[in-house]
Amino acid sequence: xxxxxxxxxxxxxxxxxxxxxxxxxxxxxxxxxxxxxxxxxxxxxxxxxxxxxxxxxxxxxxxxxxxxxxxxxxxxxxxxxxxxxxxxxxxxxxxxxxxxxxxxxxxxxxxxxxxxxxxxxxxxxxxxxxxxxxxxxxxxxxxxxxxxxxxxxxxxxxxxxxxxxxxxxxxxxxxxxxxxxxxxxxxxxxxxxxxxxxxxxxxxxxxxxxxxxxxxxxxxxxxxxxxxxxxxxxxxxxxxxxxxxxxxxxxxxxxxxxxxxxxxxxxxxxxxxxxxxxxxxxxxxxxxxxxxxxxxxxxxxxxxxxxxxxxxxxxxxxxxxxxxxxxxxxxxxxxxxxxxxxxxxxxxxxxxxxxxxxxxxxxxxxxxxxxxxxxxxxxxxxxxxxxxxxxxxxxxxxxxxxxxxxxxxxxxxxxxxxxxxxxxxxxxxxxxxxxxxxxxxxxxxxxxxxxxxxxxxxxxxxxxxxxxxxxxxxxxxxxxxxxxxxxxxxxxxxxxxxxxxxxxxxxxxxxxxxxxxxxxxxxxxxxxx
Length: 529
Fold this sequence. Notes:
Blueprint: E1 14-17, H1 21-32, E2 41-45, E3 57-59, E4 63-65, H2 78-84, H3 97-107, E5 116-118, E6 121-123, H4 132-143, H5 146-149, H6 154-157, H7 166-175, H8 183-192, H9 213-227, E7 231-234, E8 237-246, E9 249-259, E10 262-267, E11 273-277, E12 286-287, H10 301-310, H11 320-323, H12 326-329, E13 331-338, H13 342-351, E14 359-362, E15 369-372, E16 387-393, H14 412-422, H15 429-433, E17 436-443, E18 469-472, H16 486-500, H17 517-527
Parallel strand pairs: 1-2, 1-11, 2-7, 5-14, 11-18
Antiparallel strand pairs: 3-4, 5-6, 8-9, 9-10, 12-17, 13-16, 13-17, 14-15, 15-16
Helix pairs in contact: 1-9, 1-16, 2-16
InterPro entries: FAD/NAD-bd_sf, Oleate_hydratase
Organism: Haloarcula quadrata
Pfam families: MCRA
């Protein structure tokens, strides 16, 4: 059997529940590698836009919004590059998205000189500050098989002093780990990115897109799919499925979608394919404004659907592990649009970081604020005289140092006031905030994938006994790869498509950089800095 001669592919339909990067990648792999006609592929998305967490919206008049920004690593994103080497960029059809990224990162390499700051002073983040006990705990973690870790938390594995080291602050604010998160996920990250361990403080190994990921990656991929006939059903929230058990396994026979016109039923033939993104890190997001704080939602459509189908199918995982403790999975970000660029210029001068260099974390902040000033323009439609930067905080429920209220209760204006305090320019607030807009975003499930878990809590991409249903995204189990990455979503899509179509093509393996002697030696030296 070859990938170009699957006996039933032209007579089968494929249904994607959710319009995030996992579904878009899955649709592309069906067309590119499975030879499925695009018109046989249907993507159901409750919003009026696809892309999921890889978002970027707005204009200079109404302000821009990015809920989060994904970072990339060329040595480690095997499936992502496999896909985007074959997707044409929006700006030049003759060049791939990957080629444009390569060129951008050659001319805008990351090198953070000021990764950590405290009370206006730059901290030498190259000094990780690990003690012998900390190094022993890391070594013991790497040598412990993942199943033996179970649902152990980071704060249960490492002592309290570890969580006060420069290494932890650098690590936690790059990857968004919290002390109560799964230590098994830390172990996976250490193996996956061990080659970056010596340069975490400079972020030299981090690569970025020319614009935000929606403009640079989602739009080209969506256009590629539309050109091949893939249909996007916007305003379609899949709320339930009919999954029928039999001696041969479980088969999806029907989807139920809520639309503006009411409930629609989508019949699914036994030979059709259903790909579901179970859970979403940006589900339930709430957007505030310059003078309005965002609300906190405690559920979302993707979680409710997953819970519904897992109730009678235990092999479909345990969504409650990830979705039922919003206080531990939420954090808040904010996007700032500046027509008056004085605050933007002050951040560049204060941190001594040129736009595009990296991430600055303010250790004196009770919220643990960080800012990212990307290379400008960060949006394809952004004028030269308008600037944009992004920030976030890992502890939005703590009282601020300046505004004396939790970030979660703050308006965009109050968030900027708190930031200006840590930038030591609060005496200039009226002039700095004139003609500036800050849009906060509360994301209740943004780190749900890091929650302590047991084997089986995440379903396999294609569960045992599933005849036509596969799971995609951050909550489908993929051994050795790491969640909270675009790669994890794309890998899940490639795995699902290749397995469901029984393609004679292998998914690129997770590269074992940690086995290279030079990587190990450099990591050991860095641990003693």
